[in-house]
Automatic annotation (TrEMBL), chain A:
GO terms for cellular component: periplasmic space. It comes from Mesorhizobium zhangyense. Residues 1-24 form the signal peptide. Its main location: periplasm. It is found in: Periplasm. It comes from the Bacteria. Coiled coil: none annotated. Belongs to the bacterial solute-binding protein 1 family. This is Extracellular solute-binding protein. Gene3D superfamilies: Periplasmic binding protein-like II.
Automatic annotation (TrEMBL), chain B:
Keywords: Cell membrane, Membrane, Transmembrane, Transmembrane helix, Transport. Residues 73-288 form the ABC transmembrane type-1 domain. It is found in: Cell membrane. This is Sugar ABC transporter permease. SUPFAM superfamilies: MalF N-terminal region-like, MetI-like. Belongs to the binding-protein-dependent transport system permease family. It comes from Mesorhizobium zhangyense.
Length: 430, 296
């Protein structure tokens, strides 16, 4: 008899709990990223933390390799079944906004972002004055060099000018030992174009000004020539420069194993270097990009990432997504006035872009490796965010790779790059 | 033919014809229609604008679009030709070897050969990208043991495509060997016995009996090998991303980049139609070649 009543009470309790349980799973949102599994785990932890105060929202995380991120967004992102939230590279934003794949940020979110992030970063997350995403990471390029190899070659410090750079690259090259002075990158658009662009802006040039390609400038010609000189001198070996779909591969292996003396890379690869080098990571230092003959001071390229919300998602999902993102990137979700997002980013050595996060991580950003990046941020130029930017970037990649492998001269590379860029940007602007 | 018979023919054929129409003919017709339009894959078909043959002129033109497409087309043709040239003789050789009835472990060898075909491409790509590593890869270490210098493999535009071909041959040859073995079982033993009585040497038996009677199997193998090779995508997407210098940028990968990443649906469709037409021409040529041999 007692058993019967126990079952009855249990059933009654279950029926009463049903609406609550259904409400707890009312809104399901998904987050698409290209992060590695250990970073995805941190994001999932943050989502669990958020769920404690927001039990009506369930966040799931899905990761794809960087090489597949844009394709996944393009093929699945715009529909109701696509990811609700996606982390995207700022270069992709103009076309995703034009194609109405991403939703404009609500007024409250836009006001918060405009007040809490530097204006340049906000502008990279906006199209035509409308904010589409909450910025999170900012990446900047600098010269990484191996102090042990420098000491072996009798070089006292990092090169400050292109002449010193070429000289150091030649001294660091030991062909018999399979060692190159300067490591270029190929088979990965950003890995090819960003270091080249950093040298270009440090030579006083620009990729694009007012929507027009500037690769026919004297500064650009000198940058193409620098690449040709380094290749012809044997100071850089393109066969050591390959990258794979996960933005790792021989270019990373060669730097990690001490076969590359210098390389131009962004701050985010700190975790890859630490993993690959162990204690030898202390041999790696960061310096500003050497200044070219037409440049006035060290400059480099920066770019940012942001999280956007799927315009095809339902109203409730969009609302929940913006609320989650506002919390994730807000100043109260992490310790000491930092955001949970900043903590995830700093685990990878990535610079957060929210002003309060930069203050909260002042000590960590002062490390020998990262401080070199922080110091060049002020003079960094944002990589141009224009319609057709991805195609422009891939086309320039092909030209620079052809130059790396000696298939074209510096002069022809410059002519081809400018001709292609004009045609691509004009077509995209139509 | 009676009316009821005609009616039952229609009833029997309609499901298959409808399925083929909806899932094969309709998408093909849609792709051909889209190839004549200016259309973004991110917008509805109603936004497509008719531009005639402009997309085709563009992909065969002199701009970066044309240059990249023509490069991808040539890469695909080279990849396909090399794959077929290597796979067919190897599968015949291995098939003859495994088919020998008095060789111990023949069945085990067949299983081993076929197993490469069952390994998922993601695993193959991961392993082979490490095997090809210029600094730490086993291939270069083995070349070093016999006094040969290391090769750049995937790191050079001169060797990257052939490296992907080797990977493809390794994975596919087992499947084609099984096809050859099936073909060999169809050849009557009496023909070999008669040839042996007439004093024919093994190599004469091969050229006079085995190869001619394997012709239909080899034609089928060639057609499948061509289709498989033209559809290559995974190793390029997973390992080389089309590089270096576009040397492994094959058409399927390029069409995905243009049509999906850049959302240029009209251009992507024009490229797909060109690929389809090229494939049809090659397959027809293979059949025509085989028919001429049959008539001889």
């Amino acid at each position: 008899m007692r058993l019967v009543w126990t079952i009855k009470y249990a059933l009654a309790a279950g029926i009463m709990a049903l609406p609550t349980a259904a409400f707890a799973e009312a809104v399901k949102i998904s987050y698409l990223t290209h992060w590695a599994p250990e970073t995805v785990a941190l994001l999932e932890e943050a989502a669990t933390e958020y769920a404690k105060t927001n039990p009506d929202v369930a966040v799931t995380v899905r990761a794809v390799p960087f090489g597949d991120l844009l394709t996944t967004l393009r093929s699945q992102g715009g529909g109701a079944d696509g990811a609700t939230i996606a982390g995207i590279y700022d270069l992709w934003l103009p076309e995703l906004a034009r194609d109405k794949l991403v939703a404009p940020a609500p007024e409250t979110v836009a006001t918060e972002v405009k007040g809490a992030w530097p204006a340049g970063v906000v502008s990279a997350a906006s199209v035509g004055g409308t904010l589409y995403g909450i910025p999170n990471e900012i990446d900047v390029y600098a010269l990484n060099y191996n102090k042990a190899l420098f000491a072996e070659a009798g070089i006292s410090g990092p090169p400050k000018t292109w002449d010193e750079f070429k000289d150091a690259a030649a001294k660091l090259t030991k062909k018999d030992a399979g060692q190159q002075g300067f490591g270029m990158i190929n088979s990965w658009a950003a890995g090819v174009v960003h270091p080249f662009s950093s040298l270009l802006v440090s030579n006083g040039g620009d990729l694009v000004t007012d929507g027009k390609p500037m690769l026919d400038s004297k500064a650009a010609g000198e940058t193409f020539q620098l690449y040709e000189d380094l290749i012809k001198a044997g100071s850089s070996d393109p066969a050591m420069a390959t990258a794979d779909a996960n933005t790792t591969g021989p270019f990373l292996d060669n730097f990690v194993s001490g076969k590359t003396g210098m390389i131009i890379m962004a701050n985010w690869w700190e975790s890859a270097l630490k993993t690959g080098m162990g204690e030898k990571f202390s041999n790696i230092a960061t310096a500003p990009i050497p200044v070219g003959p037409s440049g006035d001071k060290p400059r480099s390229i920066s770019y940012s990432w942001m999280t956007v919300v799927n315009a095809g998602a339902g109203e409730a999902e969009q609302k929940a997504a913006w609320d989650f993102l506002a919390w994730l990137n807000g100043a109260k979700s992490g310790p000491n006035g930092s955001s949970a997002m900043a903590n995830i980013l700093m685990s990878m050595g990535i610079l957060p872009s929210r002003t309060s996060d930069v203050d909260a991580f002042k000590d960590k950003l002062g490390s020998e490796f990262l401080s070199g990046y922080v110091s060049v941020l002020a003079d960094a130029k944002p990589f141009p965010v224009v319609l057709g930017g991805q195609e422009f970037s891939e086309s320039l990649q092909q030209t620079i790779e052809a130059l790396q492998y000696g298939k074209v001269s510096a002069k022809d590379a410059q002519t081809n790059a400018q001709t292609d860029a004009v045609s691509i940007l004009e077509r995209a602007a139509k | 033919m009676t009316t009821s018979y005609r009616g039952s023919v229609w009833v029997m054929l309609t499901p298959a014809v409808a399925l083929i129409g909806v899932f094969i003919l309709l998408p093909m017709a849609l792709t051909i229609w889209l190839s004549l339009q200016d259309w973004s894959t991110q917008t509805g078909f109603q936004t497509a604008r008719f531009i005639g043959l402009d997309n085709f002129l563009e992909i065969f033109g002199t701009t970066s679009i044309g240059r990249d497409f023509k490069g991808a087309f040539v890469n695909t043709a080279i990849y396909t030709a090399l794959s077929v040239i290597l796979i067919l003789p190897l599968s015949v050789g291995l098939g003859l070897l495994v088919y020998q009835r008095n060789v111990a472990g023949g069945n085990f060898l067949r299983a081993v050969l076929f197993s490469t075909y069952m390994v998922p491409m993601i695993a193959v790509a991961l392993v082979w990208s490490k095997l090809y590593s210029p600094s730490e890869g086993p291939f270069n270490q083995m070349l070093g043991w016999i006094g040969l210098g290391g090769q750049p493999w995937l790191s050079s535009p001169g060797t990257a495509l052939i490296s992907i071909v080797f990977l493809n041959v390794w994975q596919q040859v087992g499947y084609f060997t099984v096809l050859v073995i099936a073909g060999l079982t169809q050849i009557p033993r009496s023909l070999y016995e008669a040839a042996w009585i007439d004093g024919a040497e093994p190599h004469q038996q091969f050229y006079a009996i085995t190869l001619p009677l394997l012709r239909r199997t080899l034609l089928f193998s060639a057609v499948i090998a061509v289709i498989n090779a033209v559809q290559v995508f995974e190793p390029v997407a997973l390992i080389t991303q089309g590089g270096p210098v576009g040397s492994t940028n094959v058409l399927t990968y390029h069409i995905r980049r243009v049509g999906i990443e850049r959302a240029q649906g009209g251009l992507g469709s024009a490229m797909a139609v060109t690929l389809m037409l090229s494939l049809i021409i090659v397959i027809f040529a293979l059949f025509a070649f085989a028919r001429r041999k049959d008539e001889e």
